[in-house]
Amino acid sequence: MRELVLLFVRLGFTAFGGPAAHIGMMEDEVVRRRGWMTRQRFLDLVGATNLIPGPNSTEMALHVGYDRAGWRGMLAAGAAFILPAALTTGALGWFYVAYGSLPQVEPYLAGIEAAVLAIILAAVWRLGWKAVKSWRLLLVGAVAASSVLYGWNPILVLFGCGLAGALWLRATGAGVATGAFLLPLASTSTIAAAPVAAGVSAPVTLGALGLVFLKIGAVLYGSGYVLIAFLQATVVEERGWLTSQQLLDVVALGQLTPGPVLTTATVVGYITAGVAGAVVATIAIFLPSFVFVAILNPLIPRLRESAWASAFLDAVNVAAIGLMAAVLVELGRGALVGWLPRLIFAAALLAILRFRVGTPWVVLGAAALGALSRVVQI
Asked: Is 306 helix (H, G, I), strand (E, B) or coil?
């Protein structure tokens, strides 16, 4: 239990870059370094997180804790992963409320973004070898990548390719490869909300705040990237608790900190209802994930025992490799501009794949190199 808590506290303070990078770091620590579970078990857990609402990287932390020490391990791992990010984001929220501005950390973020792309690519490379064992699965992944690049809904692509791939594999009697890496992606759906009149805001109570974020946590698929749409619809338009500009600042604060992106809720809670609001919002948005994981974790081995369920899980997993490849292309266009980010990306990739440097050190080193942009024209 002590080792479990210490690992996820460290990840909570150093896991930059969003859910895909977080899961890549967990795979490095849990599978490769510590051998707590097989790569197949890890990949099945990642696949399962994409079939339920909630933040994928947080749910992976809960799964790892559950596998190691039952429900107590799940609670411990979840708290250890969430609290550092919540405290860090909350501190920035206090700074924002007190001073009305954000810390100037863009140079460091430039380096971190490049390293994060390397972390994701390394995870795809390592886990892709396990997943793509037939030309059929390779084609499923390619179709998924192409569909996302053409603007299709990632969740529809994920389930569509999973279902079609499972039918194809079972119909042809082809051997089903096992496992893959799933990129946490979000649905494009948003919570319906009736805009309030300009300048009119609904009263902020802890009960109302908790219900808003409990609803978001219960229906938010994949990563926290779609959280912006949910907050715009509810917190800005429906209830008028924040302005659009404040929402943008809050989202920026969430991007500046490590750990789960959904700790953006902590800042919203603090701005609207102080420390108590921050606590309520944080608990409410993550609570559904604990419930879902506690129910789903024991059922995953049964899914593998079913030929059809196993085929679907393998197909949806390999489809997600294609989704990750598509997102890497999209992110790389904006992040790898100039020679310094490209150099950091290459160095980070080499450090991870060739020298097996731990991802926290890669992130910290990339942040330091990114600071060179203060004095180097890139």
From this structure: coil
pLDDT digits (tens, 9 = 90+) for 71-122: 999 999 999 999 998 999 899 888 878 766 555 666 776 777 788 778 778 8
Alpha carbon distance, N-terminus to C-terminus of the chain? 46
Q: Which among 319, 345, 343 has a CA at the least distance from the CA of 116?
A: 345
* Per-residue model confidence as pLDDT tens digits over 42-76: 888 887 776 677 788 899 999 999 999 999 999 99
Nearest-CA neighbor of 32 among 148, 130, 161?
130
Angle of the 244-256 helix axis to the 264-296 helix axis, nearest 10:
60
Instruction: Provide the 3-class DSSP secondary structure of residue 337.
Output: coil
Tell me which amino acid residue 375 is. Answer: V
Please name the residue that has the structure tokens 């030929």.
307
- Give me the count of residues in the chain: 378
Using CB atoms within 10 Å of the CB of residue 108, give its burial: 0 to 12 exposed, 13 to 18 middle, 19+ buried. buried
Closest CA to 260 of 218, 324, 217, 208: 217
3-class secondary-structure state, position 201: coil
